[in-house]
């Protein structure tokens, strides 16, 4: 009686758990906490993108490199979560690589930009007049003597006539760098056609080394509404007075249409506030530097360089520019999630279209249905009534796999479907062993009830052995595998657990209570 009670309770729990987690797939208007329990689809079934990232740790020590990779994983995870991608997969591959899978994402370029963006926020003073002259004179002299290193710039200083051989610079042409950054309408403005030249020079380590110590050169924000517009150039102090580490929060704001500030009027911008320590430092900084320009840089691009008019006590400010709303949102996400400790480079990107995912679902479902029907028909034809019992258990086992995928938030992938199809075959394997033992006992002259008892008693040890070894293999695959291999291992492991329970407990209960009741002399098997 105790065995019957225990068996009945476990079967009831099995059915209730399965129904509970499968209900959101078939019943609408459930409470939100319940409705979220749905089977999630992986990248290969839902479509999306997969990005393999390489963390550049070449300049770091072994310990710093490990910390940089772990930091990158955490930062990217936070960014992706705030970006709104459902069921992302972010995992380490080897020592310095990270695999990011974003199922369902549609704006691929935006996602790529968000993941790899460094977004180093810095506050730097703009150089004053004497400092500016020092930098300009040094760079003019360097370029006068080394113009041959920069052929695109040298084209502007070719001899006037074909017969002229004297290439001596005049006072005017000797100011090569000064002319470059004064070619537009402002005192430090680079013409749009010269921006690529200056950008290349700023990436040239030799040129950068010749900038006087303590100073740096940065371009202003690109005007995305007018790509032929000139861009501002700034000579700033090399060391930052404050960085993004001092931020408390950043948020998206929309300027009023009636705003007197044209940079924010009816435009999105970023409002930020510094933490307690940052606000104190910012207050001292602004109080001691009235009438100086303080540049706000993101990734070495100057977004604003206002003149400090007064002490700023609360560490509040804003970043405005020619932003789209999505750009502002992404910048806020990056600012809130922190900076990457090492550069991240994109090694490989794979995009899976939604139509391809739909085709995979259709193919996988068809394969599963064919496999399921084949097994059901075989069991019915070969084992008759007992086969029907095994088929009932098979249906519950497949439902159990789906319920557990929903319960644990695991993503169903195409290899996962393969694992389910394999489980369909393995689910009746235990029943085949038991039924063959029962048939042997019946052939030996035993009654159906005695044959069932003996069949289960003698076959269970073999079932445990075969199923547990497969379960161990699935666990190993999950731990050392990644992506598709893990999807296969998850469904296989869940299927093994379900098939063991349905064969040893579920089927046994049905046979005892409905097939071999009383003193029956025959059994359909």
Provide the spatial order of strands within the biggest beta sheet.
6-8-7-13-12-5-9
Low-confidence stretches: none
Helix content: 40-55%
Strand content: 15-25%
Biggest beta sheet attributes: 7 strands, mixed
What is the count of DSSP helices, taking H or I runs of 4+ residues? Answer: 17
| Number of DSSP E strands | 16
Shape: elongated
Q: Structural class, please?
A: alpha+beta
Mean pLDDT: 81
User: Cα-atom Rg, whole angstroms?
Assistant: 35 Å
Distance between the ends: 26 Å
How many domains? The number is 3
Notable traits:
alpha+beta; Alpha-Beta Plaits; 525 residues; Multidrug efflux transporter AcrB transmembrane fold; single chain; seven-stranded mixed sheet
What is this structure's SSE topology?
Layout: H1 2-26, H2 32-35, E1 40-41, H3 43-46, E2 48-55, H4 62-83, E3 89-93, E4 97-103, H5 108-116, E5 121-125, H6 129-145, H7 151-154, H8 176-180, E6 189-190, H9 195-202, H10 205-209, E7 215-220, E8 231-237, E9 242-243, E10 247-254, E11 268-274, H11 276-287, E12 294-298, E13 301-304, E14 316-319, H12 325-337, E15 344-352, H13 354-408, E16 411-412, H14 414-427, H15 429-443, H16 448-480, H17 484-515
Parallel strand pairs: 1-16, 7-13
Antiparallel strand pairs: 2-4, 2-15, 3-4, 5-9, 5-12, 6-8, 7-8, 10-11, 11-14, 12-13
